Amino acid sequence: MPKQRLITLANTYPLLFFFFLLTSHVFVVTSKSTIEPCSNSDSCNALVGYTLYTDLKVSEVATLFQIDPIALLLANAIDISYPDVENHILPARLFLKVPITCSCVDGIRKSVATRYKTRPSDTLANIADSIYAGLVSADQLREANSISDPSVLDVGLSLVVPLPCTCFNGTDNSLPAVYLSYVVRTVDTLAGIAARYLTTITDLMTVNAMGNPTINAGDIVSVPLPACASNFPSYSSDFGLIVPNGSYAITASHCVQCSCGPGNLNLYCTPAPLAVSCSSMQCANSNLMLGNATMQATSGGCNVSSCSYGGFVNGSIVTTLYTSLQPRCPGMHQFPPLIAPPTSAIDGSLFVPAPAPTESGGVGSTTPKTSVVPLIGSLPGLAPANAPAGSTSSSPLLIRPLSSFPSAIILYLFINLFLMAL
Ligand SMILES: *[C@@H]1O[C@H](CO)[C@@H](O)[C@H](O)[C@H]1NC(C)=O
Ligand SMILES: *[C@@H]1O[C@H](CO)[C@@H](O)[C@H](O)[C@H]1NC(C)=O
Ligand SMILES: *[C@@H]1O[C@H](CO)[C@@H](O)[C@H](O)[C@H]1NC(C)=O
Ligand SMILES: *[C@@H]1O[C@H](CO)[C@@H](O)[C@H](O)[C@H]1NC(C)=O
Ligand SMILES: CC(=O)N[C@H]1CO[C@H](CO)[C@@H](O)[C@@H]1O
Fold first, then answer.
1. Is 331 contained in some domain?
2. Which of 161, 235, 274, 297 falls between 20 and 30 A from 6, CA-CA?
């Protein structure tokens, strides 16, 4: 039930509205989300878990969140080499991880870069609950856009859609992590979420400052995902890049693609397979390209030279040549498995874990773009960088953003009822 309608009703017919409230359960349903206080103006990479409300093209989902369609695909390890992949139609109820930038706004972490253009027959409730799948509430939309009368929503308004996100210093238990804001469904349990994202109930309870493991549909839980951090200099435009295990990211104006896992959590970057013109990706004083390595077995061990990505600075791709002597020569680099653009949403929920590269012929699996990337295992100089946008994170607060609304109305109704009874 759209809450803005309830407000109007409450002002006009308090008694009637009170009985309506008694018979509905609107006022007991309050959602919780994890709020991270912040003080810096820094930002971090974060993800929101989004379930498609209808069939949408890749580019349409990207437009909903004002993000790059390629970034959306790669964050979900979807193969971007499919022809016309941006116009591929994704099925309703598919679950996607949407990469967003998490900022610090009015002292708390949130993302405010997303705008939605209202269409005929939109209501705040349907924008919040359906189009943005519960990532925002109608009340939050009303507040963020100072809408005094939500019952009249003009067509073509550009609404700010505040999205929940957390950074927590880019770490979880001192290891690099990216946080996924996950909207709890009726069928979810904390144990189920922990199992799906390979974490523990304890960790989820700590991250979300929960006193007990109870979650309710509509709550938004922050889920830490192990990730590969970068150590680009602070003046690079992709400073703080951090890529979750099992996924890819695009950077340097679509010239460079970085991936994380599965063998280790060292960020691994190569030229991106997109037809764009790029500055040189060759390491100085060598014939190695980004991601290339040479190995030479010597009596003292394996002499490994590798060409690594060092950030995007003033429109140039920074490359660094690392040479090291390792006990033995690393094997071929394993990439996170890519999946074909999804055509059906299994069980309306999620991505089944991508099949391991060895399980050839797994459903929808495709081989990564080996054409661009011959590579090796652990590269020298690519240790996890411990350099996410360093924020000072204080402990999280669990608040109930909607709770003030129903109690205020209920109080108002009681007063009205009392006065009428006199
Ligand atoms: C990264 O993902 C791979 C494949 O899903 C998994 O085997 C590995 O344990 C993960 N690493 C971490 C640190 O979670
Ligand atoms: C390792 O290889 C690099 C480049 O191939 C070379 O410059 C260097 O001298 C070698 N180091 C050793 C210890 O062999
Ligand atoms: C980037 O360019 C600006 C001016 O265009 C210059 O002041 C700055 O030093 C450059 N930064 C680097 C790291 O080269
Ligand atoms: C933030 O993360 C860095 C490494 O990424 C770590 O050195 C630092 O202690 C962390 N700060 C806090 C407050 O956790
Ligand atoms: C020597 C070597 O491995 N060269 C490769 C470096 O990477 C480029 C593109 O990533 C490949 O095309 C080269 O074959």
1. no
2. 161
